[in-house]
Amino acid sequence: MFMNEKKILIIRLRVHILFNMNKQRMEFSSDRRIENYLESIFTQCNITFMKDSEKGKTAYSFFADKDAKDSLITGVLVNFYKMKELISALGEKDERAFDALLGALIGFGQEEDKEKIEKALRKADVVNLDGFYNFLLDEVREDWNNLALLSSKLYAQCETEEDVYALSIFMLGMDDTINAVMIMDSAQRLFWEKSGTGIEIVPYYGNKERDTIITILSHRPSDVVVKDPSVVPESVLSVIKSLGE
Question: pLDDT digit string (tens) for 205-215?
Fold first, then answer.
């Protein structure tokens, strides 16, 4: 049996709730994908929450301690806010090669991103995520903006799908944090071969194929082993094969 990363977060949240139930509040510009992400965690943790949506803003009130809340904020920022910065420069494309590139970019420097965000969170009790991102994370925001501009220029030079895959491989190679072998089992679940740690598919688009591709690339595996190719969508297999060539 392997332990899913999301389950680890859920267990930690439950412990925090049991011993330190503080009322927390989190608000941001309404985004259904972020809301689905948070509500999924709240539901699995049996966290009672209240949601308010008004004038383009969504707010959640829930019980947890600051560490648990900060973990949720970090997850939202490194996945969804970074994605927004990238899309603002790259544009939006419903293509699997583009999804692969987007995943490689989301995962680029992510550990360093998390460290900077966590450091800033230790100094502030954040409620408004937009304000925190825009005014207290200057270095992170600048890093993401520069990455978006660079990747946009490189992407504009891609003439074929193969060029986009080559760019994805190039971006993976620019980061020292390439991880170990990733396994996709017959149920299309992802986990690390050596540790058995599960990898949660993040709902970037709410489309399983696109979300799977982006999640795989964002975790920067050295290789992906598919246990049963017959159950995996051809679009996902083609991405894995293209990156392995």
Answer: 999 999 999 99
Q: What is the CA radius of gyration of the chain?
A: 18
Q: Give the whole-angstrom CA distance, residue 237 versus residue 230.
A: 10
Q: Using an 8 Å Cβ cutoff, are 188 and 212 in contact? A: yes
What is the C-alpha to C-alpha distance for residues 28 and 53, in angstroms, rounded to an integer?
A: 10
Pairing of strands 181-184, 223-226: parallel
* CA atoms of 161 and 205, how far apart (whole Å): 21
CB neighbourhood size of 102 (10 A): 26
The angle subtended at Cα 12 by Cα 109 and Cα 139, nearest 5°, is 25
| Eight-state DSSP code of residue 176 | S
What is the rounded CA–CA span in Å between residue 151 and residue 130? 24
- Are 217 and 98 in contact by the 8 Å Cβ rule? The answer is no
* Main-chain phi, psi angles of 182, to 5 degrees: -105, 140
pLDDT, tens only, 36-60: 999 988 987 888 899 999 999 999 9
Closest to 49 measured CA to CA, from 29, 68, 74, 77: 68
AA letter at 219: H
H or E segment and range at residue 168: helix 161-173
- Per the CB < 8 A criterion, the answer to whether 127 and 27 are in contact is yes
Q: Whose CA is closest to 76, among 112, 29, 109? A: 29
pTM: 0.88
Q: Which helix (H) or strand (E) holds 27?
A: strand 22-29
Whole-angstrom distance, CA of residue 137 vs CA of residue 188 = 36
